[in-house]
Amino acid sequence: MNFFRYRRPSWKTVLGITAAKKRIKKDLGITGFLKPFRWWGNEKRKFKRAIGYESDTARLIRNGLPRPAGCLVILVSGVVLIGLSVAWVLA
Questions:
Q1: Cα 79 from Cα 87, distance rounded (Å)
Q2: pLDDT, tens digit, for every residue of 31-88?
Q3: Which of 4, 63, 77, 88 has the CA that lies 20 to 30 A from 36?
Q4: How far apart are CA 29 and CA 64, in angstroms?
Q5: Quick check: 58 and 51 in contact, CB under 8 A?
């Protein structure tokens, strides 16, 4: 085991419980049986690697299209405040 890890391993990993569980699942064929259900997650990971995690395209996919409503709220509230202040001064 490498002693210069970034994260500390869990007790299950240190005691070998995780490896034993994985070995049992593989021997029983559970891993192979569940393989088709992991297809979509694996495809998403391949796609993300192909386009690059931090590219502009990936950010667009992660965050969605830019929404101008945030600027619109500030603009509308500014116009309303200016209108109210002008109405208050003229009244």
A1: 12
A2: 999 999 999 999 988 988 888 878 887 787 777 777 766 677 777 888 999 999 998 8
A3: 63
A4: 39
A5: yes
Copy the structure tokens of residue 61.
């996919």
Give the integer Cα–Cα distance in Å for 60 and 52: 12
* pTM (global) more than 0.70: no
Burial (Cβ within 10 Å: 0-12, 13-18, ≥19) of residue 33 = exposed
Cα separation, 66 vs 73, whole angstroms: 15
Exposure class string for 5-22: b at 16+ Cβ within 10 A, else e: eeeeeeeeeeeeeeeeee
- At 85, list the tokens: 């202040």
